[in-house]
Write a structure and sequence with these properties.
With 140 residues, this protein is mainly alpha-helical. The protein contains five helices and no strands. The longest helix has 59 residues. Keywords: Calcium, Coiled coil, Metal-binding, Repeat.
Length: 140
């Protein structure tokens, strides 16, 4: 929210540029675009809150390159309890837990979708086999 100048719930390229400059890790235009592209799940060229949290998830999993802008952002954006207080840290970690929960729920939805597609493909295969059986009965 602090860097969402447009108050639209997203961080666009210019807002990300300003944020990185204020954090002391300015990036090139191309670097900023690559940062967004790496976590932009819906391909709208903006970062939603969920996509922003994905940066921290990837950082915790070691999926970010050491020299990438996202790694710098994750490192520079960590909560310092001595300055933010326990309440700030609490909301930060609650948001991280929620992001992890959302990600696992998202993975479960994908698995369920894949299982449903497999089931439909199997049913189609069985219907085709049954049709061929009936068809062969008429050919005799």
């Amino acid at each position: 929210r602090r860097y969402d100048a447009g108050k639209d719930g997203f961080i666009d390229l210019m807002e990300l540029k300003l944020m990185m400059e204020k954090l002391g890790a300015p990036q090139t235009h191309l670097g900023l675009k690559n940062m967004i592209k790496e976590v932009d799940e819906d391909l709208d060229s903006k970062l939603s809150f969920r996509e922003f949290l994905l940066i921290f998830r990837k950082a915790a999993a070691g999926e970010l390159q050491e020299d990438s802008g996202l790694h710098a952002l994750a490192r520079l954006s960590e909560i310092d309890v001595s300055t933010e207080g326990v309440k700030g840290a609490k909301s930060f970690f609650e948001a991280k837990v929620q992001a992890i929960h959302d990600a696992s729920r998202f993975e479960e939805e994908i698995k369920a979708e894949q299982e449903e597609k497999k089931k439909q493909a199997e049913e189609l295969k069985q219907r085709k086999a049954a049709f061929k059986e009936l068809q062969s009965a008429f050919k005799q």
